[in-house]
Amino acid sequence: MKAVLATDLSAASEATIENETGLACLGRIGIEEINLVTVVPSNVHAGMPGIDFEKRRRKALGRYEQVIEGAGFDVETHVVRGTPHRRIRGIAETIGASLTVVGSRGKSPLENRVIGSTARNLSRTTVTPLLVNRIERETDEPSMVRKHLFQRMLYATDFSKNAEQAFEAFSYLRHAAQEATLVHVKTPKDPGLPEGEDPEAQLAELAGQLQEWGLETRTEIRQGDPSDEILAAEAEYEPTTTLVGSRGHSRLRRLLLGSVSEDLVARANGNVMLVPPERTA
């Protein structure tokens, strides 16, 4: 499996790359090759006097490359120019990446924010599973908020096809996970599932699959605003990563449609992993 790790060369990005525990977690889920990507924004002119941005970034990536190779991964580096989220997404698609990783706090000397517009735009448009890695805020030497990326998972589902696809990520996440909390949110305007379908029974069935893989599980039905309730569950159970499909039942404007997934990326305390809908030919 290949992963894209996007960096703006900020202290926050460095915290992600140099976290040995986080790299070990990626290895456990089957990542063998990491593609380091840094993007020089289109509005930064290559001809600025005395500055070769591409050369400076390649030199900086060289140090990161040594760290990741030392952790046992094959490494490829990419210094590209353009719109950050589009170039990151394009490289992930081109190399057939199984995962894209971006830090959730970061500001480079070139005013290129990896978190903010880039992470939000990736959450809307990614074609590969996206791990938004939460980094400490308001500190000069930040570190990862949750170093064990997948140890405690929170999985939120509206039982849509995309949510089912997100659940399938446990087939590899289970190798780095120990426990999982499965949550379904009922909304006030939710007409409910088709007759005869019981959300408690469906969550129990999913929990049974995870228990067969040795994961300690719990299930919970909540009611209210989807993003608020998912974030409340995160605050209660303190997962290392919240796993969701990036789209849900659009007819209900409910779980994980647009603004809800963006809310999770922006407001969650820990990491967020978004799984996009399966692409059709």
Automatic annotation (TrEMBL):
Residues 31-132, 150-276 form the UspA domain. It comes from the Archaea. It holds the Pfam family Usp. Signal peptide: none annotated. InterPro entries: Rossmann-like_a/b/a_fold, Universal_stress_UspA, UspA. Belongs to the universal stress protein A family. This is UspA domain-containing protein.
